[in-house]
Design a protein that fits this description.
This protein is an alpha+beta fold. The protein has six helices and five strands; from the N terminus they run αβαβααβαβαβ. The chain has helices spanning 3-9, 23-33, 53-68, 73-81, 104-124, 140-145; strands spanning 16-17, 45-51, 88-94, 128-132, 153-163. Strands 1, 2, 3, 4 and 5 form a five-stranded antiparallel sheet that branches. Bound molecules: flavin mononucleotide.
Length: 182
Protein backbone atom coordinates (compact mmCIF):
# COMPACT_ATOMS: atom_id res chain seq x y z
CA UNK A 1 0.00 0.00 0.00
CA UNK A 2 1.48 3.36 -0.91
CA UNK A 3 1.35 6.23 1.52
CA UNK A 4 -1.39 8.21 -0.24
CA UNK A 5 -3.59 5.14 -0.52
CA UNK A 6 -3.06 4.63 3.22
CA UNK A 7 -4.03 8.22 4.01
CA UNK A 8 -7.13 8.05 1.81
CA UNK A 9 -8.41 4.63 2.87
CA UNK A 10 -7.60 4.14 6.57
CA UNK A 11 -10.57 3.05 8.58
CA UNK A 12 -11.23 1.50 11.94
CA UNK A 13 -12.07 -2.13 12.60
CA UNK A 14 -14.35 -2.58 15.62
CA UNK A 15 -14.24 -6.38 15.55
CA UNK A 16 -10.78 -7.76 16.01
CA UNK A 17 -9.49 -11.23 16.71
CA UNK A 18 -6.17 -13.09 16.79
CA UNK A 19 -3.66 -13.00 15.32
CA UNK A 20 -2.42 -9.80 16.86
CA UNK A 21 0.39 -7.97 15.09
CA UNK A 22 3.45 -10.20 15.45
CA UNK A 23 6.63 -8.94 17.08
CA UNK A 24 8.02 -7.55 13.84
CA UNK A 25 4.79 -5.76 13.07
CA UNK A 26 4.50 -4.47 16.62
CA UNK A 27 8.04 -3.14 16.38
CA UNK A 28 7.08 -1.22 13.22
CA UNK A 29 3.85 0.03 14.80
CA UNK A 30 5.70 1.33 17.86
CA UNK A 31 8.35 2.96 15.69
CA UNK A 32 5.56 4.74 13.78
CA UNK A 33 4.21 5.93 17.12
CA UNK A 34 7.60 7.42 17.94
CA UNK A 35 7.77 9.34 14.67
CA UNK A 36 5.09 11.95 15.37
CA UNK A 37 5.37 15.74 15.48
CA UNK A 38 6.66 16.66 18.92
CA UNK A 39 7.16 20.28 19.97
CA UNK A 40 10.49 20.71 21.79
CA UNK A 41 11.10 16.98 21.58
CA UNK A 42 9.37 16.28 24.88
CA UNK A 43 8.25 12.76 23.87
CA UNK A 44 5.30 13.28 26.19
CA UNK A 45 3.81 9.85 25.62
CA UNK A 46 3.94 6.35 27.02
CA UNK A 47 2.70 3.11 25.49
CA UNK A 48 1.47 0.33 27.76
CA UNK A 49 1.23 -2.92 25.84
CA UNK A 50 -1.54 -5.26 26.92
CA UNK A 51 -1.76 -8.78 25.50
CA UNK A 52 -2.16 -12.37 26.61
CA UNK A 53 -2.83 -12.66 30.34
CA UNK A 54 -2.59 -8.89 30.70
CA UNK A 55 -5.95 -8.56 28.95
CA UNK A 56 -7.46 -10.18 32.03
CA UNK A 57 -5.48 -7.80 34.24
CA UNK A 58 -6.90 -4.84 32.33
CA UNK A 59 -10.36 -6.34 32.59
CA UNK A 60 -9.92 -6.60 36.38
CA UNK A 61 -8.74 -2.97 36.49
CA UNK A 62 -11.84 -1.82 34.61
CA UNK A 63 -14.21 -3.82 36.80
CA UNK A 64 -12.54 -2.64 39.99
CA UNK A 65 -12.78 1.00 38.87
CA UNK A 66 -16.50 0.68 38.22
CA UNK A 67 -17.02 -1.26 41.46
CA UNK A 68 -15.46 1.68 43.32
CA UNK A 69 -18.13 3.87 41.75
CA UNK A 70 -20.87 1.48 42.87
CA UNK A 71 -21.75 0.62 39.27
CA UNK A 72 -24.51 -1.87 38.46
CA UNK A 73 -23.63 -5.50 37.66
CA UNK A 74 -24.54 -5.04 33.97
CA UNK A 75 -21.97 -2.26 33.71
CA UNK A 76 -19.37 -4.42 35.46
CA UNK A 77 -20.08 -7.31 33.10
CA UNK A 78 -19.74 -5.05 30.08
CA UNK A 79 -16.47 -3.54 31.36
CA UNK A 80 -15.06 -7.01 32.07
CA UNK A 81 -15.44 -7.93 28.40
CA UNK A 82 -14.00 -4.73 26.94
CA UNK A 83 -10.31 -5.69 26.78
CA UNK A 84 -11.19 -8.92 25.00
CA UNK A 85 -12.42 -7.02 21.96
CA UNK A 86 -8.93 -7.46 20.52
CA UNK A 87 -5.88 -9.62 21.16
CA UNK A 88 -3.61 -6.61 21.70
CA UNK A 89 -4.18 -3.17 23.18
CA UNK A 90 -1.76 -0.30 23.33
CA UNK A 91 -2.75 2.16 26.02
CA UNK A 92 -1.46 5.54 24.88
CA UNK A 93 -0.96 7.98 27.70
CA UNK A 94 0.41 11.49 27.84
CA UNK A 95 2.91 12.46 30.53
CA UNK A 96 2.29 16.17 30.78
CA UNK A 97 5.14 18.43 31.82
CA UNK A 98 5.10 22.07 32.67
CA UNK A 99 6.95 23.64 29.76
CA UNK A 100 7.09 27.34 29.05
CA UNK A 101 6.71 26.93 25.28
CA UNK A 102 4.64 23.75 25.00
CA UNK A 103 1.23 23.95 26.61
CA UNK A 104 -0.62 20.88 27.84
CA UNK A 105 -2.86 20.64 24.79
CA UNK A 106 0.12 20.41 22.44
CA UNK A 107 1.52 17.52 24.45
CA UNK A 108 -1.83 15.73 24.34
CA UNK A 109 -2.07 16.36 20.60
CA UNK A 110 1.34 14.73 20.13
CA UNK A 111 0.27 11.69 22.14
CA UNK A 112 -2.91 11.57 20.04
CA UNK A 113 -0.76 11.62 16.92
CA UNK A 114 1.00 8.52 18.32
CA UNK A 115 -2.31 6.66 18.49
CA UNK A 116 -3.15 7.74 14.95
CA UNK A 117 0.28 6.87 13.56
CA UNK A 118 0.15 3.44 15.18
CA UNK A 119 -3.30 2.80 13.75
CA UNK A 120 -2.05 3.84 10.32
CA UNK A 121 0.96 1.54 10.61
CA UNK A 122 -1.23 -1.37 11.66
CA UNK A 123 -3.60 -0.73 8.76
CA UNK A 124 -0.70 -0.52 6.29
CA UNK A 125 0.57 -3.86 7.58
CA UNK A 126 -2.79 -5.50 6.98
CA UNK A 127 -4.02 -5.49 10.58
CA UNK A 128 -7.07 -3.74 11.94
CA UNK A 129 -7.20 -1.23 14.76
CA UNK A 130 -9.68 0.89 16.66
CA UNK A 131 -8.99 3.90 18.88
CA UNK A 132 -11.29 3.91 21.88
CA UNK A 133 -11.61 5.98 25.02
CA UNK A 134 -14.86 6.12 26.99
CA UNK A 135 -15.22 6.82 30.71
CA UNK A 136 -12.46 4.39 31.59
CA UNK A 137 -9.88 6.55 29.87
CA UNK A 138 -10.63 9.34 32.33
CA UNK A 139 -10.97 7.28 35.48
CA UNK A 140 -8.49 7.95 38.29
CA UNK A 141 -8.44 4.35 39.55
CA UNK A 142 -7.69 3.07 36.05
CA UNK A 143 -4.93 5.63 35.61
CA UNK A 144 -3.36 4.65 38.92
CA UNK A 145 -3.53 0.94 38.16
CA UNK A 146 -1.85 1.56 34.81
CA UNK A 147 0.86 3.70 36.36
CA UNK A 148 -0.46 6.92 34.80
CA UNK A 149 -0.30 9.91 37.14
CA UNK A 150 -3.70 11.34 37.92
CA UNK A 151 -2.72 14.71 36.42
CA UNK A 152 -1.66 12.97 33.19
CA UNK A 153 -4.01 11.65 30.52
CA UNK A 154 -4.89 8.38 28.86
CA UNK A 155 -5.48 9.54 25.29
CA UNK A 156 -6.72 6.21 24.10
CA UNK A 157 -6.85 2.47 24.06
CA UNK A 158 -5.68 1.36 20.65
CA UNK A 159 -7.21 -2.05 20.01
CA UNK A 160 -5.26 -4.08 17.47
CA UNK A 161 -5.74 -7.39 15.77
CA UNK A 162 -7.09 -9.03 12.66
CA UNK A 163 -10.48 -7.82 11.42
CA UNK A 164 -13.14 -10.54 11.60
CA UNK A 165 -14.23 -9.67 8.09
CA UNK A 166 -13.16 -7.43 5.25
CA UNK A 167 -15.11 -4.27 5.78
CA UNK A 168 -16.51 -2.38 2.83
CA UNK A 169 -14.43 0.68 2.23
CA UNK A 170 -16.11 3.72 3.78
CA UNK A 171 -16.82 6.63 1.54
CA UNK A 172 -14.47 9.53 2.19
CA UNK A 173 -16.04 12.65 3.68
CA UNK A 174 -16.08 15.55 1.30
CA UNK A 175 -13.85 18.35 2.53
CA UNK A 176 -15.75 21.16 0.81
CA UNK A 177 -17.89 21.98 3.84
CA UNK A 178 -14.84 22.07 6.09
CA UNK A 179 -12.63 24.53 4.33
CA UNK A 180 -12.55 28.22 3.69
CA UNK A 181 -10.09 30.56 2.08
CA UNK A 182 -8.76 33.62 3.81
C1 LIG B 1 -9.88 10.27 20.86
C2 LIG B 1 -10.84 9.30 20.24
C3 LIG B 1 -11.60 8.49 21.06
C4 LIG B 1 -12.51 7.59 20.52
N1 LIG B 1 -13.23 6.78 21.35
C5 LIG B 1 -14.11 5.92 20.83
C6 LIG B 1 -14.84 5.05 21.67
O1 LIG B 1 -14.66 5.02 22.89
N2 LIG B 1 -15.74 4.22 21.11
C7 LIG B 1 -15.95 4.21 19.74
O2 LIG B 1 -16.80 3.46 19.28
N3 LIG B 1 -15.25 5.01 18.91
C8 LIG B 1 -14.34 5.86 19.42
N4 LIG B 1 -13.62 6.68 18.60
C9 LIG B 1 -13.91 6.68 17.15
C10 LIG B 1 -13.30 5.49 16.42
O3 LIG B 1 -11.93 5.32 16.74
C11 LIG B 1 -13.41 5.68 14.89
O4 LIG B 1 -12.58 6.72 14.47
C12 LIG B 1 -14.83 5.94 14.44
O5 LIG B 1 -15.63 4.82 14.75
C13 LIG B 1 -14.91 6.23 12.95
O6 LIG B 1 -14.41 5.17 12.23
P1 LIG B 1 -13.23 5.37 11.17
O7 LIG B 1 -11.97 5.55 11.97
O8 LIG B 1 -13.27 4.11 10.36
O9 LIG B 1 -13.53 6.58 10.35
C14 LIG B 1 -12.67 7.53 19.13
C15 LIG B 1 -11.87 8.33 18.29
C16 LIG B 1 -10.96 9.20 18.85
C17 LIG B 1 -10.11 10.06 17.94
Amino acid sequence: MDSIELLLTRQSSPQLVAPAPNNTALDTILKAGMRVPDHAGLTPWHFTIVAGNSLQTLSDIFVSAYKNQGAAQTKLDKAAKMPFRAPLIIVVSCCISDHKKVPKQEQIISAGCCAHAMQMAAFALGYGAMWRTGELAYNTDVKTALGVNTEDEIVGYLYLGTPTKTLPQKQSKNYHHYISYL
